[in-house]
Specification:
The protein is α+β, with helices and mostly antiparallel strands. The chain has helices at about 1-10, 20-35, 55-60, 65, 90-95, 140-150, 160-170, 190-195, 255-265; strands spanning about 45, 70-75, 110-115, 130, 150-155, 175-180, 200, 210-215, 225, 230-235, 235-240, 275, 285, 300, 315-320, 340, 345-350, 360, 370, 375-380, 385-390. The chain is built from nine helices and 21 strands. Strand 5, helix 7 and strand 6 (about 175-180) form a beta-alpha-beta unit.
């Protein structure tokens, strides 16, 4: 049963999960602390939101006056348009409303609006809703019109549509705060935006672990769903934004190269030192906290570096495998190599498979390696981001 449910979830792209209130509060507070007026007189759109369940709607409605918002718009995506909507039942919230329409409940999205009042305070009880003309898909003309009206877009979009959602955001010049998987930062469409300082990581989830609610269809979360907490755990989750916050401008505290070799908590560095890549003129730095403070050349760091990236401290030059490394070109190809398992068996793949990967000389005895006719061996590392320390 678990494998069957996971298969269903994969095919149905069941990645609609609900962000916890405390996580939203923690993230938004980072922007408020940096700029107390960041949301003042702004219209905020919360698309992909299912407002009956969404803590985004609840959070911003409850803080409407505190933040000085002008208008709050929240939209949902119709159940019939979702691939995993079998057994859908309208919520009690919807059914108890005089606006409930059984002919629209499964096929139409809903829109919730909260506007600034002229004479009295505004609170969550003032939220007004109605059915949308369409299903609420963020790509529809109806939601695009709401996007164009808004000053900011804040949401947890479906992870499977993150690249498309980011492209949708950048059709305009709006501010945004969204949730996604950190690995998406290395995507060939998204990475150039990060490199160009057009988007960056937000304040973040603790240790990169996010716990989401899943309503309904909990059975599709088999294997990651915790029956005790009612939450689904995801690793490597992050917030993406183009709004400033204090963490983004906090420099990393680093040790010198000599001190890292002497004191680092990482066995790959302590007492061993650093390697250079075989096919890039750059230093391999496998851990963000092992970046040497006194090295002025190009360094390759893991994608998790982006969570600590301070643009005043480092410049991002490019990335392996993403066609974005004109400043750090690869210096070698491996077309005359072949891939070998640790037991000596050839996989049948040529060395061209590892072209543009970050490669180092040697065999760690753990994973496949590449070898040529002269017996020279290299191994691939995970994607690396190339950085250089800013001078002055």
């Amino acid at each position: 049963m678990p494998n069957e449910n996971l298969h269903k979830a994969k095919n149905a792209k069941n990645d609609e999960f609900y962000t916890q209130y405390a996580d939203i509060q923690n993230e938004i507070n980072a922007y408020i602390n940096y700029n107390p007026d960041v949301f003042r007189d702004k219209t905020i759109l919360l698309p992909c939101d299912d407002p009956e369940w969404s803590n985004f709607t609840k959070f911003f409605a409850q803080n409407f006056e505190n933040f000085g918002l002008k208008k709050l718009i929240s939209t949902s995506y119709a159940a019939a348009s979702k691939k995993y909507s079998i057994g859908y039942q309208p919520s009690l919230f919807e059914k108890s409303s005089t606006d409930f329409d059984e002919s629209k409940t499964a096929t139409h999205g809903k829109i919730f609006v909260l506007k600034k009042g002229s004479k009295r305070k505004v609170n969550i009880d003032d939220l007004k809703w109605k059915y949308m003309d369409g299903d609420g898909d963020f790509r529809s003309d109806e939601v695009k019109k709401l996007r164009d009206e808004a000053d900011m877009i804040i949401t947890n979009p479906p992870f499977s549509l993150l690249r498309e959602f980011v492209a949708w955001l950048f059709e305009t010049d709006k501010k945004f705060i969204i949730i996604g998987n950190l690995n998406a930062a290395g995507n060939k469409k998204i990475f150039p935006l990060i490199k160009g300082n057009r988007m960056w990581l937000g304040n973040g989830f603790k240790a990169g672990n996010a716990y989401f609610g899943t309503v309904p269809n909990r059975e599709y979360a088999e294997g990651v769903y915790d029956l005790n907490t009612g939450l689904v755990k995801f690793r490597n989750c992050c917030w993406f934004t183009n709004i400033e916050h204090g963490k983004r401008h906090t420099p990393l505290q680093l040790m010198s190269m000599a001190d890292n070799i002497k004191y680092s908590r990482h066995e790959q560095i302590k007492g061993v030192g650093y390697q250079k890549y075989d096919n890039y003129d750059a230093l391999e730095v496998p851990f963000t906290d092992a970046i040497p403070s006194d090295y002025d050349g190009v360094m390759g760091v893991p994608i998790t570096f982006l969570d600590k990236y301070c643009p005043e401290q480092f410049e991002i030059l490019g990335s392996t495998q993403r066609g974005c490394h004109d400043s750090v070109p690869d210096t070698k190809k491996y077309d005359d190599y072949w891939e070998v398992k640790q037991n000596g068996e050839k996989t049948g793949a040529s060395g061209g498979k590892t072209n543009e990967n970050p490669n180092v000389v040697g065999n760690d005895g753990k994973k496949n390696y590449f070898i040529n006719a002269e017996g020279r061996i290299v191994q691939s590392l995970y994607t690396r981001i190339f950085i250089i320390k800013r001078k002055g």
